[in-house]
Amino acid sequence: ETFLPLVVNTWPFTNATQAAWAALQSGASAEDSLVIGCSTCETEQCDGSVGYGSNPDERGETTLDAMIMDGDTFAVGAVGDLRRVKNAIGVARAVMRYSDHTLLVGESAGRFAVEMGFKEESLATNHSREMYKQWRKNNCQPNYRQHVTPDPRHNCGPYTPVPPKSLWHYQRKHHDVDRWNHDTIGMVVIDTSMRVWAGTSTNGMNHKVPGRVGDSPVMGAGSYADSSVGGAAATGDGDIMMRFLPSFRAVIEMEYGASPTEAAQKAMAPIIKHYPQFSGALVAVNRTGHYGAYCHGFSKFGYSVASPAFEKVTVVYVDC
Ligand code: SD4
After folding, report:
1. Which one from 17, 40, 63, 184 is the annotated catalytic residue?
2. Cβ-proximal residues to 14 (8 Å cutoff; 6+ apart), any chain
3. Disulfide check for 158: which of 78, 166, 174, 205 has CB 3.0–4.6 Å away?
4. Going by CA atoms, what residue is nearest to atom 3 of ligand 1?
5. Beta-bridge partners for 186
6. Angle at CA 95, nearest 5°, toward 94 and 100?
7. Exposure string for 163-200, b = 16+ CB within 10 A, e = fewer
């Protein structure tokens, strides 16, 4: 039995899911629907972790990572460390459509975007300026590493060993957690002709080193699509997760016969084995519209689904 079309994305970002679903219903391609869905999160600044205005790097600038992948042709467009342009998923698609390349980074990615007609503007907001000010108030500064030996995992970095106590309560209340630092949107869309598209958009990590690019724009890490099998998308500690290409692994596991849930679990297993402290989640869908997820390091993980199996967009929670 097939359940198509399908939209699945990480986290309870249901407006993004709904926007992609509505686009599919009105006849838009899976590609356009995915871009519309992820752009919705960029505009809404989903959880402060997608789009402009949050999670400044060590110099106070917000930078964006995004990718899009066509599971029919294996065409990919991606941007890393994109600066001063808000619509990262749109720029990723422009890389795929209008260049012969796959991944553009940094200042030059921004320049490409402007040439493609995207607006150049600051990504700073009062919120991101305030986040940066707080960080500096805690005696954090770009060269803090020189002053903290031997433990490089100092509280100034994006991965604090233990979340500050003041946030425990908040985390428990919002049981799907880790919202205080990072929540990428990763989305898989399948249309009724079984075309699978996958993509991501994020502003990465609070207080990252300028130039840092996470897993989200890396194909096979942040997301992956193969229309003959399905697709997958990841969220979480990108610096760890990208070493294991979990989205690629999940698709390969499904190709070898695993269900989406099993595939997500198998893809995450080696990460958990080598880095039991990491936090992350993976959603996986197969070409017939079945889906599943696996998570680690949160108490619960919620992801959003639009499918003919439901009357409206539904958030599915899994225990981690
Ligand atoms: C990153 N994976 O840049 C992203 C952040 C994220 O949920 O997904 N947060 O590492």
Report:
1. 184
2. 304, 313, 315
3. 205
4. 204
5. 200
6. 125
7. eeeebeeebeebebbbbbbbbbbbbbbbbeebbbbbbb
Instruction: Tell me the per-residue pLDDT of 142-182, one tens digit each, with 9 for 90 and over.
Output: 877 665 554 544 577 787 544 444 444 444 444 334 444 55
ipTM: 0.97
Atom of ligand 1 nearest to the CA of 49: 9
Q: Are the beta carbons of 203 and 44 closer than 8 angstroms?
A: no
* Closest residue CA from atom 8 of ligand 1: 235
Q: For residue 203, give the ligand 1 atom closest to its CA.
A: 3
- Closest C-alpha to 280, from 200, 207, 169, 190: 200
Q: HSE, CB side, 13 Å, CA atoms: give it for residue 186.
A: 34
Predicted confidence at residue 135, as pLDDT, reads 86
Nearest CA residue ID for atom 7, ligand 1: 183
Structure-block tokens of residue 226: 């193969």
Note the pTM of the prediction, 2 decimals: 0.92
26 CA to centre of ligand 1 in angstroms = 31
pLDDT at 139: 75
SS3 187: strand
Residues of the chain with pLDDT under 70: 145-154, 160-182
Specify the length of the chain in residues.
320
- Ligand 1 pocket: which of 235, 303, 320 to mutate (most atoms within 8 A of CB): 235
**pLDDT of res. 160:** 58
* DSSP 8-state class, residue 73: T
Atom 2, ligand 1: residue with shortest CA distance: 238
14 is known as an active-site residue = no
Q: Is the CB of residue 183 below 6 angstroms from any atom belonging to ligand 1?
A: yes
pLDDT at 145: 67
Q: How buried is residue 93: exposed, middle or buried, by Cβ count under 10 Å (0-12/13-18/19+)? A: buried
Q: State the average pLDDT for the chain.
A: 91
